[in-house]
Every structure is written in C-alpha cells, then in structure tokens.
C-alpha cells in the first residue's frame, strides 16, 4: 500500500486557512472514497473534508483546534489507489515533467513574493496572513499592537482566533503599547544626550462593561458561528452609520396572485413559489431604478456595485443565521429565482453551503415577518430590506 496526502481544499477566493473542528475518523480507521474524514471551519462557513481514495487513515498531522493553511496536508491515507498516483510520474514523458517543474517553480515563486509583500506591507519582519491583516485593518489595530499579540500558530504566528480573542481587551493592551511608545520617544539634545520625554496622551478606548451575575443565572458559551455573527454585526456598525426608515406597502394583490398560481407553478416547474423570490425580483427592479442603494462603504469612499447579488437571511436549526447569496439576480426570471432560493435555503439548513455562496452580496433581504414581527432593524454588512 502507498500513502497519499489529504489536503485542505480551496474554500473560496478570500479564504486562506481553516480551523479543524472535529476529526470524524481516528488513526487506523477505514475510510471510503468521498467519505468525510474531518470537519473544518473558516470565517465564512463550516464544511467537511472528504477522502479522495478508499483506504486507512494512517496519520493525523494536526489536532482539533489547529489552524491549517489551504493546500496543506492534514492527514496521510494508506491506499492501494495511492500506488498508481505516486508511481505515475515514473512514466511521465520528459516534456510533461519539465512542464510540471516549471509550473511548480512558478507557484513557489508566487508564494514567496506574496509572503514577502505581506511582511513589507505590515512594516515588520513578522508574518501576518491576509485574513489577520484584514481583521486588524477593520478593527483599527496598529502594527505595534499586532506585534504585542502573543501568537499560538506555528513559529508564534498570530492566528485568526488570536486576534479575535484580543479584540475585546484591545483597549488595555493598546494603552500599554502607547505607554511604551511614549517611554521610547526621547528628544535628543544637541550633544546626543537624552532630553525630556515627549508627552503624548493615550487614545481613550471604550472598556467592556462589567456584567454582574445574579442568583440563578446560567452562563452559556457562544458557539463559533454565534461569535462570528456578533463580530460581523459590530464591524458593520463601526463601518457605516445605520439609519432606519419605514415605508408601508400594500401587497394584497401579490398575496392573492400567489395563492392563485402557486399550485400550478409547483406542478409545472417542480418548485415551490414562496414570497422570497417575489421580493427578490422587486428589489432587483428597484436597484436598477436606483443604483445608489446598491453600494458599500470603504472609509470615505462609496463603492457602487455593478453586480446585483442579493443576500437572503436564512435561519438555521441551531438558531444561528446565515446569508447565502443569489449572484446576478437581475439575470434570472421568477422561476430561476425560486429555484435558486429553494436550493440555497435547503442547503443552508443542511450545512452544505460552499464558502463562495455566502460572500459577495451587495444587497440583503431579511424576512422577519415569519416570526410575527411588525418590523425589524437587522444589522448586515450590505444595504438591507426587511420583509
């Protein structure tokens, strides 16, 4: 038998690493082709990693909770099929071998350049992944603060969990960093001796209020998805001002039309006609008439989106919320929207969404009316409408 690597697959354009949540197979267990071996989580979505071959899980290279880069091996699988895979290069024509070597060299060069650019852009010799730097930028964490964070990754690297755990207490460490900077800021006089220290007022940070526990209270730890939801909501509030405006619309005719055609629609198209695709179609038409509502805010810049990608909030059995995205919704008719809505909603509840299917939204719809609410003010990263 030969051994093949089980690697972390590509999980989306902006996903560079994943956290191992749970090993579904132990060392020595038999695995079948396409059978899930472990569960991983990114900042976008949770997913399974299946085995490419049938065989035996020979070795786990990482533990649960470890952060692993995309494309890196996480386990070794002993398999008969692997023998053909590992022996294939022996009979490879020289031209193909040379081509493979060139491609491999180009990939290594690109990785090296990317790593060098990451180091240079942070102004430090310490490496930070694009995800960590993006979080630091959005949270206003300086390079000095990043340097002070103790990393739990390989070679002391700061992981996503390290920086997320740091954010609630960043005010305290930020003040310490400011004090260290002040102490190091010494004005030199003419003969090179030290002069008085430069007085700089530290930036005031909002401190997390103390919560008093009372008799009978119970502490329930947030699961990973709920933590991410909370982080994203706070990030959204810090990015742009939130203003709520309510306009009431009479959709009696819409309800009567759906009741009249829904059975025939389902029989003809084999898809249920819910209200969601109808509201998606209405929002798409509104965006075409008023394109300035399909925008994002980046500091002092307004980014007008050309694509119309509608996010639809979907409740999960766990009580959490996820927002799958209907890409290029303006190019779909009502049947296409209904089919896409049903597919995304079903796979969201089953935990089968791909990372790319929950990013890139430009406008989001949240259906709070199903809970009996008269109105609601959801906090989402994109412009939104509640139905």
Brief digest:
With 387 residues, the chain is an alpha+beta fold. The protein is 36% helix and 19% strand. It is built from 10 helices and 18 strands.
Describe this entry's structure for a reader:
This protein is of the alpha+beta class and 387 residues long. 36% of the residues lie in helices and 19% in strands. It is built from ten helices and 18 strands. The strands form six sheets. The protein has a four-stranded antiparallel β-sheet with strand order 1-8-6-3. Strands 5-4-2-7 form a four-stranded antiparallel β-sheet, with no helix packed on it. The protein has a four-stranded mixed β-sheet with strand order 16-13-17-18, covered by helices on one side. A hairpin with a 4-residue loop joins strand 4 and strand 5 (46-50). Helix 9 packs across helix 10. The longest helix is centred in the N-terminal third of the chain and has 29 residues, at 94-122. It is globular.
From the structure above, extract its key features.
387 residues; alpha+beta; globular; 4-stranded antiparallel beta sheet; 36% helix
The helix-strand sequence is EEEEEEEEHHHHHHEEHHHEEEEEEHEE
Shape: globular
Rg, Å, rounded: 26 Å
SS strand fraction: 15-25%
Show unreliable segments.
82-123, 184-204
The proportion of residues forming helix, as a percent range, comes to 25-40%
Structural class: alpha+beta
* Whole-number mean pLDDT: 74
The strand count comes to 18
Distance between the termini: 58 Å
The major sheet is characterized as: 4 strands, antiparallel
Give the helix tally.
10
For the biggest β-sheet, the strand order reads 1-8-6-3
């Amino acid at each position: 038998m030969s051994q093949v690597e089980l690697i972390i697959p590509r999980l989306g354009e902006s996903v560079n690493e994943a956290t191992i949540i749970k090993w579904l197979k132990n060392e020595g267990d038999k695995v079948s082709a396409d059978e899930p071996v472990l569960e991983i989580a990114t900042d976008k979505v949770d997913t399974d990693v299946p085995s490419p071959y049938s065989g035996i899980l020979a070795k786990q290279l990482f533990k649960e909770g470890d952060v692993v880069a995309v494309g890196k091996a996480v386990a070794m699988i002993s398999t008969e099929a692997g023998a053909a895979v590992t022996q294939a290069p022996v009979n490879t024509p020289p031209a193909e071998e040379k081509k493979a070597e060139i491609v491999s060299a180009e990939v290594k060069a690109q990785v090296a350049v990317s790593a060098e650019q990451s180091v240079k852009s942070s102004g430090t010799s310490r490496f930070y992944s694009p995800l960590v730097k993006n979080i630091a930028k959005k949270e206003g964490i300086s390079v000095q603060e990043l340097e002070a964070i103790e990393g739990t990754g390989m070679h002391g690297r700061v992981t996503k969990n390290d920086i997320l755990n740091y954010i609630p207490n960043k005010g305290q460490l930020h003040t310490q960093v400011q004090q260290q900077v002040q102490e190091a800021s010494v004005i030199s006089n003419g003969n090179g001796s030290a002069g008085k220290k430069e007085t700089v007022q530290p930036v005031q940070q909002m401190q997390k209020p103390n919560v008093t526990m009372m008799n009978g209270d119970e502490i329930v730890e947030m699961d990973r998805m709920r933590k991410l939801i909370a982080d994203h909501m706070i990030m959204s509030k810090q990015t742009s001002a939130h203003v709520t405006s309510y306009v009431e619309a009479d959709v009696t005719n819409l309800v009567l039309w759906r009741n009249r055609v829904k059975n025939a629609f389902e029989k003809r198209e084999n898809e249920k006609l819910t209200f969601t695709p109808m509201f998606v179609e209405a929002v798409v038409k509104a965006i075409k008439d008023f394109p300035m509502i399909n925008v994002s805010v980046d500091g002092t810049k307004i980014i007008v989106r050309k694509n119309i990608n509608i996010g639809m909030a979907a409740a999960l059995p766990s009580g959490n919320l996820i927002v799958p995205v209907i890409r290029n919704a303006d190019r779909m008719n009502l049947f296409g929207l209904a089919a896409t809505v049903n597919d995304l909603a079903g796979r969201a509840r089953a935990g089968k969404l791909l990372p790319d299917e929950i990013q890139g939204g430009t406008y989001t719809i949240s259906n709070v009316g199903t809970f009996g609410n008269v109105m609601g003010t959801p906090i989402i990263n994109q412009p939104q409408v509640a139905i």
